[in-house]
Amino acid sequence: LKAADIADRFGATPLDPADDPAIVGPNGIFTEAEFSANDRDGQEFRKTASVMKLVMNGFAGAACIEMGGYDYHGGKRAEGEVKDERAGRCMGACIEYAARVGVPLMLYVFSDGSLSSNGAIDNSPAGRGKGEWVSDNSSTAAAFFMVYNPNGRAALRGGTPEEQAMHQQIGYMDAGASVQRAATPAANNVNLLVNTVVLNYMALHGDEGMFANVIPNHGLGDSSLRDAMTAFDAIVAGTIGPLNPG
After folding, report:
1. Which of 100, 102, 132, 128 is nearest to 115 (CA)?
2. Nearest to residue 231, comparing CAs of 207, 192, 196?
3. What local confidence, expressed as pLDDT, does residue 112 receive?
4. Is 206 helix (H, G, I), strand (E, B) or coil?
5. Contacts of 219 (CB under 8 A, 6+ apart)
6. What is the mean pLDDT of residues 32-50?
7. Cis peptide before 125 (omega within 30 of 0)
8. 3-class DSSP state of 39
9. Can you point out the beta strands (E) in 80-114?
10. Is the pLDDT of residue 73 over 80?
């Protein structure tokens, strides 16, 4: 019955990103050649387009785009640069599509580890004169999220530029270029990092006051500490919709 209901409601809905001129075509985010390419770029672009269309047309509340092959510590910076640029283009595509559809977007980027360099330089064209990645290093990792607001630039919390700067970056690196694990509850605890992301997502809706009810056993401290770990003022009020399928 559930499958029949889904087919009845969405069976005639255009879900193929290849048929969306805002995504593919002369005026699209991707050219036809980029989107159809039988290479890693094309694969990731098609995957990203499918997921972003589902979310921003209102057919999915949230989604994860997973990209593999980022353990690029084989000694050549070029490999990492190419893969990072590809990931960046996919992030940019999501933001551009949000702008074209006219919906707000929170984009959270995370990895299961990080890397370090020994200082040797990769001077190949794709290496761009940067240090070579040679080993895993969990002490240099960081996650980040970006926010797009179709009604104007999202406002950082704080009444002064100095206060806003403190909300723009949660935690910090020490003098040895390692994460200061005592800076915030999220700095040395993956589940509290997830709590922090959820807190910030709720704050974008003005619902941060409900956080302790949603995750009663969180470890982010009292409301004052949670406010210090919240980046932006609300950009929407509650639930948004209906969305424009485009």
Report:
1. 132
2. 196
3. 86
4. coil
5. 185, 189, 191, 192, 195
6. 98
7. no
8. coil
9. 105-109
10. no
